[in-house]
Amino acid sequence: MSTLTLPPVAKSFYTLCKKCEGERYHRVLAHKTSTTAKIECEICKSVKTYSLPKTGSDAPSARRLSGAAATGAAKKAAASARSHSGQYEIFTSNKMNETAVPYSIKGSFKESQKINHVKFGIGFVTKTYDEKIDVIFVDEVRSLMQNRK
Ligand SMILES: [Zn+2]
User: Fold this and answer.
1) Residue 24's closest CA among 33, 15, 32?
2) pLDDT at 77 (0 to 100)
3) What's the CATH architecture for 12-51?
4) pLDDT in tens, the chain (149 residues)
5) How far apart are CA 135 and CA 36, in angstroms?
6) Residue 127 and residue 143 in contact, taking contact as beta carbons nearer than 8 Å
7) CA of 39 to the centre of ligand 1 (A)
8) Could you tell me the distance, in angstroms and rounded to a whole number, from the CA of residue 147 to the centre of ligand 1?
9) Protein residues near ligand 1, an ion, with CB under 5 A
10) Ligand 1 center to residue 50 CA distance, Å?
């Protein structure tokens, strides 16, 4: 629909009258602005301001955009939940020729280091803290100690 215009002054048009609680003919008394006019109900003679309905579809399109973004975030979260085995495989192939360092709580480990845990087997350090490391094993990521003398 193109730009709406007000009905001309002295013309009557059909619109809702709140006083009559129904659709009534209203006579245009004067234009107040380009989108509002002073009108008078032909039945109850009440005078009110009529405003043209606002055009433009900015709000619905913005809502569509944020909806798409939300869907994308949900997909990303689902993908990261499924990625554990993928992450472990990447480490395994990248570190194929690296010798696994036997794990010990007295040891000091570096990020992405390949370790060999007596119980959990081959793992890769994903994050290091002062006295702790996060290690990805084939089944899950475990938090292990390090630097304990
Ligand atoms: Zn009325």
Assistant:
1) 15
2) 62
3) Single Sheet (2.20)
4) 456 789 999 999 999 999 999 999 999 999 999 999 999 999 999 999 999 887 655 545 445 555 556 666 667 666 655 688 889 999 999 999 999 999 999 999 999 999 999 999 999 999 999 999 999 999 999 999 999 98
5) 68
6) no
7) 10
8) 86
9) 17, 19-20, 24, 41, 43-44
10) 13
Pairing relationship of beta strands 114-117 and 101-102 according to DSSP bridges: parallel
**Chain centre to alpha carbon of residue 35:** 36
Place of tokens 């006295």: 131
Helix or strand holding residue 39 (H, E): strand 36-41
Euclidean distance between CA atoms 92 and 72, whole angstroms: 29
CA of 26 to the centre of ligand 1 (A): 8
Please tell me the distance between residue 8's alpha carbon and the centre of ligand 1 in angstroms.
20
Query: Which tokens is 3 given?
Result: 């730009």
Question: What's the gap in Å between 90 CA and the centre of ligand 1?
Answer: 75
Tell me the β-bridge partners of 17.
22
Provide the pLDDT for residue 62.
47
Domains in the chain: boundaries: 12-51, 84-145
If you measure from the C-alpha of residue 46 to the centroid of ligand 1, how many angstroms do you get, rounded to a whole number? 6
